[in-house]
Amino acid sequence: VQLVESGGGLVQPGSSLTLSCTASGFSFRRSAMSWVCQAPGKGLELVSSIYSDGSSRYYVDSVKGRFTISRDNAKNTLYLQMHSLKSEDTAVYYCAKEGIRGQGTQVTVSS
């Protein structure tokens, strides 16, 4: 299993970012996938998850209406569109499959 995240960066509050995760080494199209994050000094938190066929999605309350999870099974890629970013969204974001994570991508929201 290999998960490679990209798309993070330093942005101002109110900005948008789209994170991507390219997966390999397993049947991506048959796997539920998640985004988790770890803010400085805090534990891992589930941000969002999506069924293998995209038919069901979960969002933690703090990102509902601002983040959108999606996937392209033909490209073995998972996405997280992040809008109206807040300073409290600052964290390392990881793509995850059943407890296995990639190396993460840093999102920093600061003015």
- Range of strand content: over 45%
Measured on Cα atoms, how large is the radius of gyration?
A: 13 Å
Q: Roughly how much helix do the residues carry, as a percent range? A: under 10%
Q: Pairing-aware structural class of the strands and helices?
A: mainly beta
Please describe what this structure looks like.
The chain is mostly beta strands. Helices cover 0% and strands 52% of the residues. The protein contains no helices and eleven strands. The chain has strands at 2-6, 9-11, 17-24, 33-38, 44-50, 57-59, 67-72, 77-82, 91-97, 100-101, 105-109. Strands 2, 4, 5, 6, 9, 10 and 11 form a seven-stranded mixed beta sheet that branches. A four-stranded antiparallel beta sheet has the order 1-3-8-7, with no helix packed on it. Strand 5 and strand 6 (57-59) form a beta hairpin. The radius of gyration is 13 Å and the shape is globular.
Spell out the key features of this protein.
52% strand, 111 residues, 7-stranded mixed beta sheet, mainly beta
